[in-house]
Amino acid sequence: MSRTTEHLQNIADKLTTLKNTSELMINLAYSSLLFNSRELAEEVQLLEERIDKLQTEFELLVLASGFTPEESQDYLGLMRLGVTTERIADAAARIADVVLRGLEPHPVMRLVIEEAEETVTRVQVSQHSPLVGKTLRDAKIPAETGMWLLVIRREGDWIRPKPETLIREGDVLVASGYAEGEDDFVRLASGKN
Asked: How many domains does one find in the chain?
């Protein structure tokens, strides 16, 4: 494949996705540890599988660039950036694995967990939810529940929430917030009163 503008944009898009995914994984992994949340740790493991696939796709795109020997140094740098994001993702998976293996948290971490007023929860949006078809801005989830969306999992993709993100039936919402709002959040997403 030649180095068309479209091909170079595909490389840039894939690298951006790798970077964003590894950042998301680190955030979720630390949160899984701080909240001792198996749900978040499971999300990290699912993302680890996805990032491995993304890394291979990225490397194949770079290798298909048809670069000259003189340009190889620049493309090697791109490959190294991709490898670095994958290493970050691996580190996040190792952090989450501590929670999944059910290891006792360090006494200091246990105190942090016990004193935390926040919680993290994951819920699938049902067809009966009033959230279906609304943007996050219009849904006003934080105002209604005291919970803030961390990520939306949709059909194998993880979406960082933005005000204009549309909520769909079947979306898996991962949110954190005050423990008192967790039940309200689950009821809102599930459509059960």
From this structure: 2
Q: How many whole angstroms from its chain centre is CA 169?
A: 19
The band of 118, judged by pLDDT with boundaries at 50, 70 and 90, is confident
Helical residues (DSSP H) of the chain, grouped into ranges: 5-34, 38-63, 72-100, 107-115, 136-139, 141-145, 182-190
Model pTM score: 0.73
The verdict on residue 112 lying in a domain is no
- Which CATH number belongs to the domain containing residue 53 in this structure? 1.20.58.220
Q: CA-CA distance, 144 to 116, in Å (whole number)?
A: 21
Residue 1 confidence (pLDDT) above 70: no
Q: Name the domain boundary from 77, 107, 137.
A: 107
